[in-house]
Write a structure and sequence with these properties.
Elements lengths: L1 E6 L13 H10 L6 H21 L3 H10 L22 H13 L18 H12 L3 H21 L13 H13 L3 H13 L15 H21 L15 H4 L7 E6 L24 H10 L9 E8 L1 H6 L16 H5 L2 H11 L10 H4 L2 H7 L2 E5 L1 H8 L10 E7 L4 E6 L14 H12 L5 H12 L18 H4 L11
Parallel strand pairs: 3-4
Antiparallel strand pairs: 1-2, 3-5, 5-6
Helix pairs in contact: 1-7, 1-8, 2-4, 2-6, 2-18, 3-4, 4-5, 4-9, 5-6, 5-7, 5-9, 6-7, 7-8, 7-9, 8-9, 11-14, 14-16
Length: 503
């Protein structure tokens, strides 16, 4: 890997385009390096993972709304069109990318990478699949594009913190989708450069979507970024330019949205001929909840065996990283994180609520654990309000460690009983993490798919999809439509009624 220093430049500076971060990203997008076998295998795992969580969310209201919007935009004459998860037919690719992105993101249940910034790099998949279907790309083309997209987003997440400036993490997703599409479509470096600049410029927004009372826009934000990136690539292919240098300009992202004109960031990117392996640094979720609560859920399930009566708990303190404390813990200052009437999206970002339910139930369910009646249970509310978080510098250090062997997203739980007894335990990584007790590999991804698809997708359709995706690299051009999954209309009819819009 080559570490690039990225800083702001005045318009009068001598700063050649070849030194722009967008140009360096475009250069790795056009590098014809082969995709390693383990990267290819993990890409297939994550396509299966996305299908799993899409099945689980397909009749939820935000997903139904996005699907209804998308199917109002039929395929254009320029290509074959793209599939929308759950339904037949083909539609305009940017709208298909958007609808499928919402389905993937709605339950907060797919892959993650955490470093200087947060990310869900599986958000790249809907946009690349949709465009691949529309233009007739092959399975190998899609895999090469996704290897680039994962590499770019994860490398940006390693080097540039957005949340400290209250910028939403999808600002790293727009450029990664644009770069991945550039690789998949075989575009030239200049076109990819312009698309990256446009995509970043149009996907910088505040983090209010993940603060206070969290709405369904949390699921829409990455889907919107993917749609915007598809449109940016389309414009760039037609010869349109972008603001540049987008990161480093005098009025660019670093100078005015991040740490200011004097800030210096370091972004690692593969060197020429170096394989793209960043996807292997990411990890998926066993539980439908914010990633930093994955290890606490597993910890709660383990600790509950030591407690005979939850009503005799006096207090629970979770000692954890700064990120966990201020984003999903009591350090956020959000009273909504302790409100039984809070939205599902808010409870998903409340580790006190999550730890309480996991401790009482010994399990976690993507629907039942968030049900209003579950959140209002008096004994749960009582326990929930006894839980707080504090930052522990050691957990913060481990969160930011570059050593995979010690990088951790866990916590130490200190449970004090009414009689003064103190029960303590800790867990550094979730059980499903590559270094966890039950790390995910292909069988676990397939099991997650079949469990979440049960009762949603007919068995023959499940088998057809798994058979196709398992051998994705060998699939010929114009075959990627097989990645779309159709759900019986009788199941889709269970979706809530939605209001009439413009389309």
């Amino acid at each position: 890997m080559i570490t690039h220093t990225v800083t702001s430049h005045r318009s009068s500076d001598e700063f050649p385009k070849s030194e722009h971060l967008a140009s360096k990203i475009a250069a790795i997008a056009v590098d014809p390096v082969e995709v390693p076998a383990d990267t290819e295998a993990m890409i297939i795992n994550r396509i299966i993972d996305n299908a799993s969580v899409s099945a689980a969310s397909v009749i939820r209201r935000p997903v139904t709304t996005a699907r209804t919007q998308a199917v109002a935009h039929p395929a254009t004459a320029a290509g074959a069109g793209a599939g929308v998860f759950g339904v037949g037919g083909t539609y305009s690719p940017e709208w298909a990318a958007y609808a499928n992105g919402v389905a993937v993101r709605e339950l907060d249940f797919h892959d993650t990478f955490l470093a200087a910034e947060y990310s869900h790099p599986g958000d790249n998949i809907p946009a690349l699949v949709a465009v691949g279907q529309h233009v007739g790309a092959s399975g190998a083309d899609l895999i090469r594009g996704l290897a680039t997209a994962y590499e770019v987003q994860i490398d940006l997440v390693k080097g540039i913190c957005l949340h400290e400036h209250k910028i939403d993490h999808v600002a790293h997703l727009g450029p990664s989708v644009a770069a991945g599409l550039g690789t998949m479509l075989g575009l030239d470096q200049e076109t990819i450069y312009q698309a990256i600049g446009q995509a970043l410029h149009l996907t910088t927004a505040t983090r209010q979507s993940r603060k206070g009372l969290i709405s369904s826009w949390k699921a829409y934000a990455p889907a919107w970024a993917g749609k915007v990136a598809v449109e940016a690539v389309d414009r760039a292919m037609r010869g349109e330019g972008s603001p540049s240098p987008i990161w480093e300009g005098e009025d660019g992202v670093i100078a005015w949205l991040l740490s200011g004109p004097d800030a210096r960031y370091t972004v690692p990117l593969p060197g020429p001929g170096e394989a793209k392996r960043a996807i292997l640094d990411s990890y998926t979720k066993e539980h439908s909840a914010e990633y930093q609560s994955q290890a606490p859920i597993d910890l709660a399930r383990r600790m509950r065996e030591k407690i005979s009566d939850f009503s005799t708990i006096a207090s629970i303190v979770l000692h954890t990283s700064h990120h966990t404390h201020v984003v999903i813990g009591s350090g956020s200052g959000d009273p909504q994180k302790f409100d039984p009437d809070a939205s599902r999206e808010t409870l998903d970002h409340s580790v006190p609520y999550i730890f309480a339910v996991a401790l009482q139930d010994g399990t976690w369910d993507s629907e039942l654990s968030y049900a209003p009646e579950r959140a209002h249970r008096p004994d749960t509310v009582e326990l929930w309000h006894k839980i707080s978080t504090v930052e522990d510098p050691e957990w913060t250090r481990r969160y930011h460690s570059n050593d995979p062997a010690e990088k951790a997203f866990g916590a130490r739980a200190v449970i004090t009983m009414d009689d003064g007894e103190v029960i303590t335990d800790e867990l550094a990584v979730a059980d499903a993490h590559p270094l966890g007790a039950r790390p995910f590999s292909r069988p676990q991804y397939v099991e997650k798919f079949t469990e979440l698809a049960d009762g949603v997708i007919e068995s023959a359709e499940q088998d057809r999809f798994l058979s196709f995706v398992t051998d994705l690299a060998a699939k010929p051009a114009r075959s990627l439509g097989e990645l779309n999954i159709v759900v019986p209309q009788t199941y889709l009819d269970k979706a809530p009624a939605i209001g009439k819009g413009i389309f």
